[in-house]
Write a sequence for this structure.
C-alpha cells in the first residue's frame, strides 16, 4: 500500500526567507507554499491599465498604488499574497519587522484567469474581507468585458454591481475615482470592442 506524502508545511519566517531568495513569487496559505503562475499579456495589460488610471485619479491624495509585486499579509487567515492591484491609504501599515509587506489595503483588484477565478471569488475574497481597512474589491474578466465591483456597505455587508457595457463609467468609492469600463480593456483584443 502506497501512502500519499503530506505536503511540507513551513512557518511564515521560513516562507519569507525562501521568498526573498526566490526568483519567482509564491503565496503562503496557512503553512503551505503555493507557486504563483505567470499572468497572460492581457492580464498584465489590464492590471497596468487599472493601476495607471488609479494613479492619475488619486494624484495628490493620501494613497499608494501597488502592482502584483507588492506582498500583502493577512494575519487572521495566515496568508501572504500578491494582489494584481492594491490601493493603500497612507500611512502604510507594514508587518512588524518587515519593510516589504503591507497590511492595510482599502481597495484590491484581481484580473481573473481560468485557473484563479474560483479562488479570487471565494477563499481569497473571504480572506480579504477579514482586513479591517478593506472596503472595495474589483474583479476584472480578461476574456470578455465583465467587471464585478464589491463595496462594503456595513459590517459583514457587501454590495455587488456587475458591468458588461464598455461605455459605462464605474464609480469607485476609494477617493471617488471614476473609471470608464472600456479604459480597463485598452489595447486588449476582445470581440465587440
Amino acid at each position: 500500500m502506497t501512502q500519499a506524502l503530506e505536503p511540507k508545511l513551513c512557518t511564515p519566517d521560513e516562507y519569507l526567507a525562501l521568498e526573498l531568495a526566490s526568483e519567482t513569487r509564491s503565496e503562503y496559505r496557512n503553512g503551505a507554499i503555493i507557486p504563483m503562475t505567470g499572468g497572460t499579456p492581457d492580464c498584465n495589460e489590464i492590471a497596468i491599465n487599472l493601476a495607471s488610471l488609479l494613479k492619475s485619479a488619486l494624484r495628490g491624495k493620501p494613497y499608494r498604488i501597488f502592482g502584483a509585486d507588492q506582498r500583502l499579509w493577512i494575519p487572521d487567515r495566515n496568508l501572504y499574497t500578491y494582489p494584481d492591484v492594491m490601493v493603500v491609504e497612507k500611512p502604510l501599515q507594514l508587518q512588524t519587522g518587515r519593510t516589504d509587506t503591507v497590511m492595510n489595503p482599502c481597495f484590491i483588484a484581481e484580473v481573473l484567469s481560468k485557473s484563479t477565478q474560483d479562488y479570487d471569488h471565494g477563499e481569497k475574497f473571504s480572506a480579504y474581507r477579514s482586513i479591517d481597512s478593506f472596503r472595495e474589491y474589483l474583479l476584472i474578466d480578461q476574456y470578455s468585458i465583465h467587471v464585478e465591483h464589491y463595496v462594503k456597505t456595513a459590517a459583514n455587508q457587501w454590495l455587488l454591481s456587475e458591468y458588461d457595457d464598455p461605455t459605462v463609467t464605474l464609480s469607485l468609492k476609494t477617493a471617488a475615482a471614476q473609471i470608464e469600463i472600456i479604459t480597463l480593456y485598452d489595447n486588449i483584443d476582445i470581440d465587440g470592442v
The chain is about 20% helix and 30% strand.
